[in-house]
Design brief:
alpha+beta; Lipocalin; 8-stranded antiparallel β-sheet; 8 strands
């Protein structure tokens, strides 16, 4: 009885493997990988440097709009993504003064220079061609 059951199982598996159609391609996403939209990205560095960054600086993307904080002022605007290319259009920025304003100005300058992005796990890099301008970590 057991031998018959094993033979029937082997024959079934053989015929299942001979379907004749190409397998459906699947996208493999690593556990913990975040998406550009719907994630709050906290600024951790300017490029790969250890230079200070504005405290509490972050960016979020949703439905063609980005919003965030430069450490002192709120920022936002529109964005367009095509493959790994991204274009950020300046929209708004509040105009409060604060001690870290020079770091915030650098952050804003880099945002306006972004042309590409990449995500690796919970890290987002905003780039200008092949140079990392801003590195973020998902919250």
């Amino acid at each position: 009885m057991l031998k018959s059951l094993l033979i029937a199982l082997a024959v079934s598996l053989f015929f299942l493997g001979c379907g004749g159609t190409e397998p459906t391609p699947m996208t493999v996403v690593e556990k913990g990988t975040k998406t550009l939209e719907g994630t709050k990205w906290n600024l951790v560095s300017f490029g790969l440097t250890r230079m200070a960054v504005p405290k509490k600086a972050f960016i979020s993307f949703q439905d063609g709009r980005y919003s965030g904080h430069g450490g002192c002022n709120g920022v936002g605007g529109d964005y367009v993504v095509e493959d790994d290319k991204i274009t950020l259009s300046a929209g708004f920025s509040t105009m409060m003064a604060c001690p870290e304003l020079d770091l915030e100005h650098k952050y804003m300058k880099y945002l306006s220079s972004v042309s590409r992005y990449s995500i690796d796990g919970d890290m987002l890099d905003l780039r200008s061609d092949d140079h990392i301008l801003l590195r973020f970590k998902a919250e």
